[in-house]
Amino acid sequence: MKQSMTLIPTLREVPADAEIKSHQLLIRAGFIRQNASGVYNYLPLAKKVLHKIETIVREEMERAGAAELLMPALTPAELWQESGRWYSYGPELMRLHDRHERDFVLGPTHEEVITAIVRDEVKSYKRLPLALYQIQTKFRDEKRPRFGLLRGREFIMKDAYSFHASQESLHEMYENMYRAYSNVFARCGLNYRAVIADSGAMGGKDTHEFMVLSEVGEDTIAYSDSSSFAANIEMAPVVMEYPKSNEPQQELEKRETVGKKSIDDVAAYLGVEKEKCIKSMLFQVDNRFVLVLVRGDHEVNDIKVKNLLEATTVELATSEDTSKIMKCAIGSLGPINVDFEAVQVIADHAVASVVNGVCGSNEEDYHFVGVNPDRDFKVSQYADLRFIKEGDPSPDGQGKIVFAEGIEVGHIFKLGTRYSEAMNASYLDDNGRTQPMIMGCYGIGISRTLAAVAEQCNDENGLVWPANLAPYDLHLIAVNVKDDEQRFLAESLYNTLLESGYDVLYDDRAERAGVKFADSDLIGLPLRITVGKRASEGVIEVKVRKTGETLEINIENLVETIAKYVVK
Is residue 181 part of a domain? Predict the structure, then answer.
């Protein structure tokens, strides 16, 4: 493609509203332009990268045994009402109605639609398992779109769904998809981790996220420094022993702590370690109230609370509810003298080891000291309820936990019968009995992957695309198109390279050399071929974008040289 014939609007200045590197560079290099908040135009360079990512995804999906189809983005509300997500999905669901006042959804994902298709077309176990996928634009009304393509209101996604007659069959497909996703992100040149995750609003139990390591990631990954263990910090289990001190138990005593509400303030005022304090937090769990206790140096993990209690929603109680239920302000909460008919009390395992501790008294400006669990208050259940910390033992028994930030680019779920039961998607087994289909769900953010690659693959001069994702294989530059020898040689090389099977971006613009070279570095193609002052000698320059290595070669050796750097 001649550069004068395509649209690559590069910018010298960093856009004021672009916070992260990938967003800045994709705009500056002419890959994307914003259409509205969280909605982007993919310009020709970005479209070519997206196509290459989609090709990799399609190849791996076919190897995993999934067939491609295409479902409508606009879906009737009735399907979402059948599944129950019309009511539970939240304000991110893009809802609209047509001229006849019928309600529709712009799909953020397609469990409802695919379940309806398979429900209507598959009746026997003989047609199972079945895996189907699509690559399509999705919509989510994000409250705060940010980070360019990483969190938008419109994005491109590959979503796959599988249907099974047994858990064993689902597990086999899940493993196939796990391998396929690993292959996709490895082929995209990404430094990633597959981590244990929470299924969130999707439902289901077993699930893994595929996280690209990045300083701007919106999720924290907890992983072992000595093994392959990795989990989203929300899901990383804590496997610690908490030895209990054998010091004599003290009498329970109420102490005045005027104005001291935080654990740090209370611990400092009373002269105790935070590990001696018991932190109490009141949550509304579905339609009930639960007081969750953790040690003062730990933080409550609400996802673990949700999973332990098999709840749909877990939210911190409001100050009004706290005052009504606990008869005190949020900063004074404690587990002693709690009305167990109104509030359930659960605690993290570490709380059981506290001896002569400190806790709130459910009375403003007072705390209890000499607190001992089980003697002074009752707990209905002890469980792992805290966030894991750096330095904690790895749950697999190998090494210590360290943290990294990550960008989620893929997610796989075992959905079970969550949607098939709600939507009556059933089949006849080999005994002629009706059974609900068992489902799996598998998503890849195509446009997110593009941004994640840009976030990892860049330097101070611009983007540095992996060879198999670069929008073009080569960037051919004629330094001075007004010079007949340079222009004729560049045109000849352009045609030769195209005939050799290379995808070439030919900068034939009447721009200054500095502008062309700066644009070339910004765009970040693997190799740059420069036709300059030595054109009359048949000598050209080849520069490797990633390493900066520069070679001067004779044109007869060009194709041979390129083959060392660009694998076709």
Answer: yes
Which H, E and C letters describe 462-485, residue by residue?
A: EECCCCCCCCCCEEEEECCCCCHH
| C-alpha closest to that of 12 among 510, 461, 481, 535 | 461
As a whole number of angstroms, the distance between CA 241 and CA 231 comes to 20
CATH number for the domain spanning 517: value is: 3.40.50.800
Amino acid at 481: V
Q: Is residue 369 in a domain?
A: yes
Tokens for 474? 């080569």
At 87, which amino acid appears?
Y
CATH code, domain with 301: 3.90.960.10
| CATH number for the domain that contains residue 197 | 3.30.930.10
Helix axes 44-64, 446-456, angle to 10 degrees: 110
Tokens 């509030």 found at: 343
Cis amide bond preceding 129, omega within 30: yes
Domain count, the chain: 3
DSSP letter for 565, please: T
Residue with tokens 């041979």: 560
Determine how β-strand 207-213 pairs with β-strand 401-416: antiparallel
- 253 with 364: CB under 8 angstroms? no
Q: What SS3 class is residue 2?
A: strand
Nearest by Cα to 201 from 305, 313, 302, 110:
313
The strand pair at 539-544 and 527-531 is best described as: antiparallel
Distance between first and last Cα of the chain: 18
Q: How does pLDDT run across 138-171, given as a tens digit for each residue?
A: 999 998 898 999 999 999 999 999 999 999 999 9
What residues make up the domain containing 258? Answer: 253-383
Looking at this protein, which amino acid is placed at residue 541? E
Give the pLDDT confidence of 34-65 residue by residue, as tens digits: 999 999 999 999 999 999 999 999 999 999 99
3-state SS assignment for residue 523? helix
Is there a domain that residue 242 lies in? no
DSSP label of 265: H
> DSSP per residue over 55-94, as a string?
HHHHHHHHHHT-EE----SEEEHHHHHHHTHHHHS-TTSE
Q: Helix, strand, coil % (nearest 5) of the chain?
A: 30, 30, 40
